[in-house]
TrEMBL record:
Taxon lineage: Bacteria, Bacillati, Bacillota, Bacilli, Bacillales
DUF1989 domain mapped to chain residues: 8-179
Cross-referenced InterPro entries: DUF1989, UAAP1
Transmembrane segments: none
Pfam families (UniProt xref): DUF1989 (PF09347)
Full protein name: DUF1989 domain-containing protein
Length: 237
């Protein structure tokens, strides 16, 4: 299958762009311990975006993997996970801030170290939101691909070290035209005091048309309704 587009996000890098409906987006960790934070918005109506609470509640899950979908706050299927070599991607820990980054890794200034300064997810996301006609008020919960974070009975989050090996992949399928905002910055609960520097490769490929018998559609009744909502809106547009 021939790639439509490929980009590698290196340490601290960010990217945003629209990926059309009916595409596969394959993410590959080019080292151990990768983390790629991602936000998702309807490309034509930014007020509709990935909704973490509805996504998890509807699918009775705490994390995302093959067969799961990312739902919007309008109850529509936005993205499906069609392949996953890991089995767990974090949905709850959020993104790094400037205060957290400076405290954990040490203060770094672009004026002193140039492109080696330690970027944070909040700043990366905000810059890309502004570039796409939004602002910091449009920040929402991200998905942290390649990270596994569990919770104990008291609600304390535990980062699983060594979870992501070199070459780990997860493949997404776009169910609507989607604005992707990506930030190759650390998971906020990663206890390491060394700023991670693991590149992640992003590839866009064509996808076969989705049918009502698709595994992501049939994963649960809530998924089927979300797909039907998406298909209905696409038919009317």
């Amino acid at each position: 299958m021939q790639n439509i587009w490929t980009k590698t996000l290196r340490k601290g890098e960010k990217w945003s762009g629209i990926i059309k409906r009916g595409r596969l987006v394959r993410l590959t960790a080019l080292g151990e311990g990768a983390n790629l934070s991602a936000l998702f918005y309807n490309a034509h109506d930014h007020t509709e975006r990935y909704n973490m609470p509805d996504t998890l509640k509807a699918q009775h899950t705490f994390h995302l993997t093959t067969g799961n979908i990312l739902m919007t706050d309008n109850g529509r299927a936005m993205i499906s996970i069609v392949a996953d070599s890991l089995g767990w991607h974090d949905t709850i820990s959020g993104y790094t801030t400037r205060e957290l980054t400076d405290k954990k890794y040490g203060e770094s200034l672009y004026q002193k170290v140039r492109n080696d300064w330690f970027r944070c997810g909040q700043e990366n996301f905000t810059i890309e939101l502004v570039r796409n006609g939004m602002d910091a008020r449009d920040l929402t919960a991200p998905v942290n691909f390649f990270s596994k974070i569990t919770s104990d009975e008291n609600g304390n989050m535990d980062f699983i070290k060594g979870y992501c090996p070199y070459g780990a992949t997860v493949t997404l399928r776009t169910e609507m035209d989607t604005l992707f905002i990506l930030s190759n910055t650390p998971a906020p609960v990663d206890p390491s005091t060394d700023y991670p520097s693991v590149p992640v490769r992003c590839e866009v490929l064509p996808a076969v048309p989705v049918t009502p018998l698709d595994p992501c559609v049939l994963s649960c009744p809530e998924n089927q309704r979300a797909f039907e909502n998406t298909w209905e809106m696409e038919t009317l547009s």
